[in-house]
Amino acid sequence: MAGTLAEKVWQAHVVRPGENGAPDLLYIDLHLVHEVTSPQAFEGLRLAGRKVRRPDLTIATEDHNTPTLDIDLPIADATSRTQIETLRANAAEFGVRIHSLGDADQGIVHQVGPQLGLTMPGLTVVCGDSHTSTHGAFGALAFGIGTSEVEHVLATQTLPLAPFKTMAITVEGELPAGATSKDIILAIIAKIGTGGGQGYVLEYRGDAIRALSMEARMTVCNMSIEAGARAGMIAPDETTFAYLKGRPHAPEGADWDAAVEYWKTLRSDDDATYDAEVVLEAKDIEPYVTWGTNPGQGLPLSGNVPVPEEIADESTRIAAQRAIEYMGLTPGQPLRDIKVDTVFIGSCTNGRIEDLRSVAKVVKGRRKADSVRVLVVPASARVRLQAEAEGLDRIFIDFGAEWRNAGCSMCLGMNPDQLAPGERSASTSNRNFEGRQGKGGRTHLVSPLVAAATAIRGTLSSLADIDLPEGTTVDGSPLAPLDPHLLVQV
Amino acid sequence: MEKFTQHTGIGVPLRRSNVDTDQIIPAVFLKRVTRTGFEDALFYAWRNDPAFILNQDAYKTGSVLVAGADFGTGSSREHAVWALKDYGFRVVLSPRFADIFRGNAGKQGLVAATVSAEDIELIWKILETRPGTEVTVDLVARTATCEDVVVPIGIDDYTRWRLLEGLDDIGLTLQHADDITAYEATREAWRPTTLPAKHLPSLPVQPARPIPLTLGQTRTH
């Protein structure tokens, strides 16, 4: 029977089919663990006298709470310190591999899996974090779970899962210059809404998706959850295989060949049917920015803040009114006129080396606007080291930005990196909820390129608003040919 | 999970409806890293009121909570069930429960059973007239008994079976441990393992370089 990518991966993991409407029991290939959602799961195991069934399919790192300054000093915040110390103790007690602060492989869990070569096509990947959907970029079925499910996976390496529906999101054509994968996903969410993906696994397809680098694909899949979807996937191809080859945990020799042969079958059959289909034209996708307080409230940067009175649907109108009020905006105001206080470049959405390179290409040799604070936070310690090896840190510091250590940082403000009440940010992260980046903070979600241009001008801007020297490329390729002896590699 | 067939304990009449999970346990307690020890957090705001039912000696050691309709609405926090269990409650009776709360309760061995509003009223009257009166909840017979009042309780067959057998979600899955082991034997060699750990060359990570103050904006917050 013809199947979609998601159905194929699902079927390959059924340990026990559900009977009489009960959920299928699915095997989990890779379980990522961090400090916030795991403590009670480990304690549950302890209370029940259970052990971790497969420590060798489990890996932990510290990210949500980690400070991005003074990482060699004790963590000042007591709650953060306790959560991190608890994770370390649990990892030791249950024999789980952990990458702690100060380790080159510490960082946001959704960067650590891919950079180690643990995230692969055809896997089931779970983590107590909603942005686990990131790993779907490899053609894995990857989704966030709650704390009791974390305990369930630790104890059994399986999860009972209710069936899902499938949605194809096809992006045809070529992206215009200055638009990125972040703009693709913001455009998708603006189109289908924050609930549009509810109950679905999304599959991104089409030329525009195929043309994306592995890291850019991760940005798209990362935000599937912001459309309400459980997971987002992209069929693996040569781009995927090239990214994986040679990574520490990538298969080698005959195993590699067998894996690639299987991975090539991981695509939706031509006659497979989806429960829903959405099509976007890449040429219509401009740099996007959110004006409101959910990721679906986004518009092309060339637009204006919506006028609620012009919105026909009542609940949409009320939501827009509330959001505009919270965001301190004026209906009809051009988005380009919005002045920001902080630019945050980082997170599991856009804190990877290619993101940092493309920002560096834009800001190189320039000075940030005086009124703006610019925070650059790499997704992992290794991304940071790579960036430093390539001299990107110097470009950022000369620009006037703060160059920080790896972690989730201002994406959710669980560490000291927060917005002050009323402060406004242009942020490359994934959520613009009220208070997410700090109590009373106002967040505009943007791509790294828009973040860079905004940092230069102090108001929401795209590359069209700044003079880039003739021939400047802003893609994720290195600024200069890399030294082949470079020890770091992300 | 402990098997539950029958339980007898002091009944606590909670004459309130729409007891949401924020009232059961406020969000501030969610920062804890433990899953036990939440007894002090249960009904935290109300516990400051000396007149609150659990502050009265006769009810303090209660283990059967008899509440008004729509118990456990609001956030999905599993802490609400942990707090009730940690305090010593084994059973909550209410005319109607929020779905997520009822699901969470069943998974963790707390009996959340429905009793009609009229019957709840009968039980409340007895418990209020004679504080410290015990209530017996019998999962086999599907009844709650308070003195001479015997009323039917509602609980779905699947949850009841799990409670009678003492099976939590993990326990249920582990009944199929053989299937899991059999599946594991079929997993291909290319699928990754995190252990033994493989790395790129290890590197010492220093704090990011200090930022000269002259470069940054002076901030007042």
- Average of pLDDT of chain B: 90
Major beta-sheet overview of chain B: 7 strands, mixed
The major sheet of chain A is characterized as: 5 strands, parallel
Beta-strand percentage range of chain A: 15-25%
Strand tally of chain B, please? Answer: 7
Sheet-strand content of chain B, in percent, reads 15-25%
The helix fraction of chain A, in percent, is 25-40%
**Tally of alpha and pi helices of chain A:** 16
Determine Rg of chain A (CA atoms, Å): 22 Å
* CA-CA gap between termini of chain A: 39 Å
Structure notes:
- The complex is a heterodimer of chains A (490) and B (221).
- Helices cover 31% and strands 16% of the residues of chain A.
- Chain A is of the alpha/beta class and 490 residues long.
- In chain A, the strands form five sheets. Chain A has a five-stranded parallel β-sheet, with helices on both faces. A five-stranded parallel β-sheet of chain A has the order 17-16-15-18-19, with helices on one face. A four-stranded parallel β-sheet of chain A has the order 11-10-9-12.
- The model of chain A has no long low-confidence stretch (mean pLDDT 95).
- Chain B has 221 residues and is α/β, with parallel strands linked by helices.
- In chain B, strands 4-3-2-1-5-6-7 form a seven-stranded mixed β-sheet.
- The model of chain B is unreliable at 212-221 (pLDDT under 50).
- Classes of the chains: A alpha/beta (490), B alpha/beta (221).
- Chains A and B meet through helix 2, helix 3, helix 5, helix 10 and helix 14 of A and helix 7 and helix 8 of B.
